[in-house]
Amino acid sequence: MPNVTSSVVVPVDPATAFAVAQTTGEVRLRWDSFIRRQYFLDGATDPAVGVQTHTRHRWGLGVVSEYVSYAPPTNVGMKMVRGPWFFSHLAGGWRFAAAEGATKATWKYSFRCRPRWLAPLAEAIGCRVLQRDIDRRIAGFARGCRDEVVLASVRDAGGGAP
To answer: 3-156: what fold?
Structure first.
């Protein structure tokens, strides 16, 4: 199964980095250029294992994902429940580890394309496209970890270090 991974070291503690990664609404859009819109489904207001979200990608593609792990401040994992026809599988995990007064964030995505006869070509192209998108997204996350508006929002919500 193809995978793409991207890492960055950010100048905040793991709890703050994790909290930035879980921001929502306008605060999320300040750093996450990957999405156009994202919201919880079924009345959920907070992330937790089993909670589903709807994400509208900046290109207009929609995905319903479900949290399969949620362990602040170290990791979060999600899997696609419903999404674009060309993915038979899409999942991602974000890890946050202390790194000499900072945090190393590592984001890994795995996917499988369909139809199977086209998968080798589609997955090769998908690796390039997703790698570029994930590299850009994690760079935006790094900017968010330096953005005073984002950091203030996280502090106000009780996430991360004061």
So the answer is: Alpha-D-Glucose-1,6-Bisphosphate; Chain A, domain 4 (3.30.530)
What is the DSSP secondary-structure string of 89-123? EEEEEEEEEE-SSSEEEEEEEEEEESSTTTHHHHH
Distance between CA 35 and CA 15 in Å, rounded?
23
Q: How far is Cα 34 from Cα 97, in angstroms, rounded to an integer? A: 23
Which ranges in the chain belong to alpha helices (H)? 14-21, 25-31, 119-144, 148-156
Question: Is the Cβ–Cβ distance between 67 and 77 less than 8 Å?
Answer: yes
What's the pTM?
0.91
Classify 52 as helix, strand or coil.
Answer: strand
Task: With cut-offs at 50, 70 and 90, classify the pLDDT of residue 160.
Answer: low
